[in-house]
Amino acid sequence: NTVAGAKLHRWRKSDFKKYKALNMTVHLDDPDVVEIWSHLAHAHVLILSQSAFSMVPAYLNPNCVIYHGHQYVPPSNWMDGLDDQRPTFDEEFRACMNRAIDQNHSFVTRANRRV
Fold first, then answer.
1. CA distances to 4, 33, 62, 85, 105 from 91, in Å
2. What is the pTM of this model?
3. With contact defined as beta carbons under 8 Å apart, do 70 and 50 qualify?
4. Does residue 83 sit in helix, strand or coil?
5. Residue 5: left (phi > 0), alpha (psi -120 to 50), or beta?
6. Contacts of 66 (CB under 8 A, 6+ apart)
7. Cα radius of gyration (the chain)
8. Residue 61 confidence (pLDDT)
9. Which of 15, 17, 92, 98 is most buried, with most CB under 10 Å away?
């Protein structure tokens, strides 16, 4: 499923046709690491893999970052996405999504002021 109005990006070669069919922008072997990191650092919701590649932009991302439990002390806007049975999971997830929604609302408001 996708979130209505969301612009989704994916950086993985496997099954990339499936992602294009879902209206996602697919990045394959992009030579400009800065552009890729910029997308990650500005994502409203950033879901991390275990790759170290996304760590720098993740630390720069003030929005909702969902990680896989590997960080010793993650920033306060990060959410552990692995243990979904813990009592606080739903509350943490809602707070994370609210940060993403608030950030998106702020962006749209700023953009409308420029028009």
1. 22, 34, 18, 12, 21
2. 0.70
3. yes
4. coil
5. left
6. 45, 46, 47, 48, 78, 79, 80, 81, 96
7. 15
8. 93
9. 92
How many whole angstroms separate alpha carbon 25 and alpha carbon 62?
Answer: 22
- Point out which residues pair with 9 in neighbouring strands: 25
DSSP state of 72: S
How far apart are alpha carbons 100 and 45 in whole angstroms? Answer: 6
Burial class (CB in 10 A: 0-12, 13-18, 19+), 34: exposed
Q: What letter represents residue 72's amino acid?
A: Y
Amino acid identity of 111? Answer: A
Per-run averaged pLDDT (10 residues), the chain, 115 residues? 62 68 76 89 89 89 88 82 90 91 60 49
CA neighbours closer than 13 Å in the CB half-sphere of residue 12: 12
